[in-house]
Amino acid sequence: xxQDMVVLARVRxxxxxxxxxxxxxxxxIYRLLTQVEPEVYGSKLAYVLVExxxxxxxxxxPERRLxxxxxxxxxxxxxxxxxxxxxxxxxxxxxxxxxxxxxRPTESLAVRGAGASGGSSGGAAATRMTV
Length: 131
Fold this sequence. Notes:
There is one protein chain. The longest helix is centred in the middle third of the chain and has 17 residues, at 62-78. By secondary structure, this protein is mainly alpha-helical. It has 7 helices and no strands. It has helices at 3-16, 23-36, 38-53, 62-78, 86-102, 106-116, 121-130. Helix 3 packs antiparallel against helix 4 (62-78), helix 3 runs parallel beside helix 5 and helix 4 crosses helix 7 (121-130).
């Protein structure tokens, strides 16, 4: 982990002067800091990922939305059961993912259901640079 990037992310987080940094900057900050301190920043990452899935930037791309939501679910599941925010962010991510799946054509659900158990790191990695 590049410590300069960690320091930069923390400086941006502190300079934002908000409880949750949203948008592409928030995604970058929380993805980076979750690697360093997952229990501290994981719930905020899951929250921002769900918000990003509803962004106009990914509005025309169901694959991107679902990749963001899959990442949110995985991040929330990775939080320890003792984390006070785990159940709330996991429920929010699962509900958003379910709404997204229900809005898709039937054949897409079957394909997505088969791939959902294998993880989402590939799709999520592709969205990191585009959102």
